[in-house]
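Obj: model holo form, ligand = pyridoxal-5'-phosphate.
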Amino acid sequence: MIPFNKATITDLEERYVIDAMRNSKLSGDGKYTMRVYEQIRERFGIKDILLTTSGTTALEMSAILINLDPGDEVIVPSFTFSSTVNAFLLRRAKPVFCDIRPDTFNMDENLIESLITPNTKAIYCVDYAGIPCDMDVINAIADKHGLFVIEDAAQAIGSKYKGRWAGTLSEFGCFSFHETKNYVMGEGGAIVLNEEKYLDRAEIIREKGTNRRQVLKGWTDKYTWHDIGSSFLPSDVLAAILSAQLDRYDEIMDKRMRVWNAYHEQLKPLEDRGDLRLAIVPDYAEHNGHMYNIVLPTDDIRTHLVDFLKERGIMAYICYVPLHSAPMGRRLGNKAEDCPVTEDLGNRVLRLPLYADMTEADTDKVIAAVNEFFR
Ligand SMILES: Cc1ncc(COP(=O)(O)O)c(C=O)c1O
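Output (holo structure tokens):
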């Protein structure tokens, strides 16, 4: 079976994990966590970043940091993972779903202003498939209306918007290092604090509301309860996996790009014939090869293609069920027709297998199977 995703693990990851365990520092903020911060600082110029137990909890931390109150409204795309919305729903804020752009599947920045009310407090935007949103436009709207912007860059580490790294494009960036992402630690994530003023409180929130990190830094000799918070700090053993992955940053990126480019080039004749639509990357963006999506003419054709590929040992994935029309979205009072582009594309998009260790033979097999289907 060709899976839709598989993490790439080598002797290096194993060596670092064993070393982390032998250091007897199994909890957070040990040697490998610090090494990851250094690697991220060197590569992306990111100064203030905190590893978290998941991309989900990085998003939850952002919702605490911006002091959302019950009834505050948050503008968010519906074409995303549940975590983007749960993060602020847990604070009792209300999602206001924004439809997507047909090219990138990202929030349509031209619709945002029409959704703003006196209760709007934040915009959570999502860099779907590792393609950044049009952040200059989104940030300008947010500045005009005094809103926070949180960039859900769970899928976008290593991508760029107008030459700037994804995750650094607004007040907060949230990464995921889940095993399905480009660089993994099993379960894990990070919050990027692009304004220094949030760092102290973020450290406290991540440590169950205590100032324990200040003790580790030698600023004080006793720690105590200062704020709300939770257990958002990942084990150093997991950070060891991520540190090895970041040592292999270029290798992993190159291998993923090779698969992405093969799909993009070799499926082009099918697009030219009108059988499907290929991925679209806007001129402002450089992507990280996170996933390759095709769009089929109808959801029926998508269903048949999924079955056809499965019969040939290939797992293709139907991406997200739009949140606004999912059972929870409906319970919150949303209707399918609220986001027509999301509803339409959500039914027709298909994610092809893509991972760093995918062989050329397997990539060719997927391309051949898609061709055979349309024949
Ligand atoms: C857009 C988006 N946001 C948030 C998450 C949550 O990340 P994690 O699985 O690390 O909690 C994901 C993960 O799939 C995601 O794709």
